[in-house]
Amino acid sequence: MGVYTVGDHQIPFHNYKEAVDWINGLIPFGIRPGLERIELLMERLGNPHRRLKFIHVAGTNGKGSSCAFLTQTLMECGYSVGTYTSPYITKFTNRFQYNDQDIPEDTLLSIAGRLFPLVQEMAESEQGSPTMFEVSTALAILYFAEECYPDVVVWETGLGGRMDVTNIVTPIVSLITNIGHDHMDVLGDTIEQIASEKAGIIKPGIPVVSCVEQPEAISILKETAIEKNSTLYLLGEQFSFERTQVSEDGQGVRFRGPFRELEFNIAMLGEHQSKNASGVMMVLEVLRQYMAFVLDDEHVLAGFRATFWAGRLEKVTDEPRIVLDGAHNPEGAETIAKTIPEVYHYRKLNLMMGMLANKHHSAYLQHILPIVDTLILTEPDFRRKLDAEALLALVEQLREAYAKTDLEIIVERDWKKALMLLQSRTEREDLGVVAGSLYMISDVRATLLHQTDSEKGW
């Protein structure tokens, strides 16, 4: 590794790849909930986050899609938008976008160079080294506050809310998409515990929008909003939606809010996307009504129509028809199982699946098995992958109760060979689906779309 100097400091990387390798090299420090290290980092940099307007987005599923709706619609309305999301589908730079464009590699390199000495200094102190996600978050803040100056930043939580690194910011409005079973090893194993973590993004006096539906989660959000003196806009109470039409090309949504009714179309599939879009519409209504955002209906509707989010019920090839979906928890599986038969017509459904070792797979399989004709079990190319044989053992336990009687199961550890099997077995009248870990979805997507610059990661 080469060395070059920034100011008085020697930096041990001199190209984009080495900078990303350094950031990813911090992964072994793990996920360490708490804001002390990021607060210290920001203080040393002059608190650049205080100069930005954030829309903070938390939730178990639907965060990425909601961020995409917000970004596209605000851009369509003439605002410049920074977007910070994770994990990424194609390249590390996807995490940090300005007006839908990735951070330039040389900008990432120079900001990483600024952060390196601070991170080293902290690593040698009692705080210990910042984690990979903390350094990425600091990098995002510096990019938006000192390089591109967006009007607004769409800011996705990494994990939970309360102790998540992104919670260092005070937003202009918060959005909590939904609450389900994910990251239970960190967030707790009941809906109440997970809801308490997500509700941690609610700030004093800052309005919050939510599409959460479980009564026990709703009561926690309501209590927190009262305690923080924040106005809560809740799906089913302050706003609602209904779907007006559904096809392979998208769906129509009728939104009813406290200020007005509006009909719009989205290209994204599934009732869950109508719900995500309605939550975002409520956020936009709050911005329009109370924060003087100029959001003309024509541009708002065009933004919703144009929104796309890779790897979410995304049809990537027509011959054979193959759809990708990065659903990896029970709620995501329930959504796939409901949406695919509603939207697509097919004779046989062939599903290729690969998972990480830390998820709730039994409940996932209970939702997905009833719709599958051929199941191809494989493994993501990732260090925390779940062994395909272990996944098979789980399927066999559930087979009798949930699967079709003639379900065919194939185990192929190598995901590339598994993909070739899926392609060869999916005939013209059939549908091929690749589901599970986003790490695998990103590899499969790059292969099917012939993308040569694909990286992948959290």
Automatic annotation (TrEMBL):
The keyword GTP-binding does not apply. Pfam families: Mur_ligase_C (PF02875), Mur_ligase_M (PF08245). Belongs to the folylpolyglutamate synthase family. One of its GO terms (molecular function) is tetrahydrofolylpolyglutamate synthase activity. Residues 311-437 form the Mur ligase C-terminal domain. This is tetrahydrofolate synthase. The keyword Electron transport does not apply. One of its GO terms (cellular component) is cytoplasm. It catalyses: (6S)-5,6,7,8-tetrahydrofolyl-(gamma-L-Glu)(n) + L-glutamate + ATP = (6S)-5,6,7,8-tetrahydrofolyl-(gamma-L-Glu)(n+1) + ADP + phosphate + H(+). It comes from the Bacteria. InterPro entries: Folylpolyglutamate_synth, Mur-like_cat_sf, Mur_ligase_C, Mur_ligase_C_dom_sf, Mur_ligase_cen.
